[in-house]
Write a structure and sequence with these properties.
By secondary structure, the protein is α/β, with parallel strands linked by helices. It has 2 domains: about 5-180 and about 300-390, 3-Layer(aba) Sandwich (Aminopeptidase); about 185-295, Alpha-Beta Plaits (2-Layer Sandwich), CATH 3.30.70. Helices cover about 35% and strands about 25% of the residues. The protein is built from 10 helices and 16 strands. The chain has helices at about 5-25, 35-45, 105-120, 145-150, 210-220, 220-225, 265-285, 305-320, 335-340, 375-390, and strands at about 50-55, 60-65, 70-80, 130-135, 160-165, 175, 180-185, 185-195, 200, 235-240, 250, 255-260, 290-295, 300-305, 325, 345-350. The strands form 4 sheets. The protein has an 8-stranded mixed sheet. Strands 10-12-8-13 form a 4-stranded antiparallel sheet, covered by helices on one side. A two-stranded antiparallel ribbon has the order 7-14. Strand 1 (about 50-55) and strand 2 form a beta hairpin. Helix 3 packs across helix 10.
Length: about 400
């Protein structure tokens, strides 16, 4: 396949990618509630003459493009769920759904992959091997959509898988990739402390869950510094503490919510064990009881060495060797992990920062946006990866 011609074709249909992205941005759907989005994707792929499976693993869509020549089967993945955030941008394509917006670039991922499918479908006779387009639901909320889609066969017969994520805080045109760990395991915990309510003037007649919760927050912060090998990585964050609503009343209960991030399985086990031990000890010391709901979220993403090296090579042909950067490992979570547990692959980031610094906001922010040209960069890397995989 002539990669240069494929890139030219992508540039020609770039306005279509923008239209798709903006339509999705105006009509976002939350994780596990996606209806319009997967239907639109399925209809689009069907119109291209691509084999389509719907309701894969739940709400996923998988398209299979069979090439005219023998070769490897490559999977490309994009996610399409939005977030429960009010869109505060002043743009024509602002979300029309109150309290819901695409604040992480998943609309851009979807548009880039549909653009890739559009161009490859027109060159299917020249295509060596097959391409599987994985459009995934519910990346944002564990247990996520990747695992059930894999269990439902989205990777059956696939030799290698690639995925991309737009980065609003990284320069447009840069590609970031690394072998090994890319993102961390993301676990969540909810702790309920059961005390004994009473009058604020007579604390000796109560068991104060507020004080116990306050002590627990401090004690939990000592787990990483005093239980984890300093050469290993772990994060424990308590993001929510709630109890009572009247200043002179000791409430019956207090609630803590937080997250634990790790890479190695033994450290992950240790963090869960120590969380439970410290919670028990703190509550026993104050006479309170407790309940813990511990949710194991996504596993860490592991990028395979050969596939990462290959991705860097084809990316260099697209953006230039000087713009292919070594990605930093992140403590964020991403359910792409379940794809690379099944088949070799790699997950890379694409710079998408807007030129006006006043408009640059982080992911999951109410004013999040990105430079849409990053979608074209992503699609070019995807088609280059497909065109060169059998060489």
């Amino acid at each position: 396949m002539d990669v240069h011609k494929l890139h030219e074709a992508l540039e020609e249909i770039y306005p279509k990618m923008v239209d798709i992205r903006r339509d999705l941005h105006q009509h976002p759907e939350l994780s596990f509630e996606e209806v319009r989005t997967p239907q639109m994707i399925a209809d689009y792929l069907t119109d291209l003459g691509i084999e389509v499976r719907t309701e894969v693993g739940g709400r996923g869509v998988v398209g299979t493009l069979r090439g005219g020549k023998e070769g490897k089967t490559v999977a490309l993945r994009a996610d399409f769920d939005a977030l429960p955030i009010q869109d505060e941008k002043d743009v024509p394509y602002k979300s029309t759904v109150p309290g819901t917006m695409h604040a992480c670039g998943h609309d851009g991922h979807t548009a880039a992959l549909l653009g890739t499918a559009t161009v490859l479908a027109k060159h299917r006779e020249e295509l060596e091997g097959n391409v599987v387009f994985i459009h995934q639901f519910a990346e944002e909320v564990p247990p996520g959509g990747a695992k059930p889609m894999v269990e439902d066969g989205c990777l059956d017969g696939v030799d290698v898988v690639f995925g991309a994520h737009l980065q609003s805080n990284s320069p447009l045109g840069n590609i970031y990739a690394r072998e090994g760990y890319q993102s961390a395991a993301a676990d969540m915990f909810h702790i309920k402390i059961n005390g004994k309510g009473g009058h604020g003037a007579y604390p000796h007649q109560a068991i104060d869950p507020v004080v116990t919760a306050s002590q627990l927050v401090v004690h939990l912060q000592q787990i990483v510094s005093r239980s984890v090998d300093p050469t290993e990585s772990a994060v424990l964050t308590v993001g929510s503490i709630q109890s009572g609503d009247i200043g002179n009343v000791i409430p019956d209960t207090a609630y803590l919510k937080g997250t634990i991030r790790t890479f190695e399985s033994d450290i992950r086990d240790l963090m869960e064990k120590r969380l439970k031990q410290v919670t028990e000890a703190t509550c026993v010391a104050s006479g309170a009881s407790y309940e813990i709901d511990y949710l194991r979220g996504y596993d860490p993403v592991w990028n395979h060495a050969e596939e990462t090296a290959y991705l860097k090579e084809v990316a260099a042909d697209v953006v230039g060797e000087e713009k292919v950067k070594e990605a930093k490992v992140t403590m964020g979570g991403e359910d792409f992990c379940y794809y690379t547990q099944k088949v070799p692959g790699t997950f890379f980031n694409v710079g998408a920062r807007l030129s006006d610094p006043e408009l640059v906001y982080p992911h999951h922010h109410p004013r999040f946006d990105f430079d849409e040209k990053a979608m074209l960069v992503t699609a070019k890397v995807f088609v280059s990866a497909i065109a060169n995989i059998n060489k």
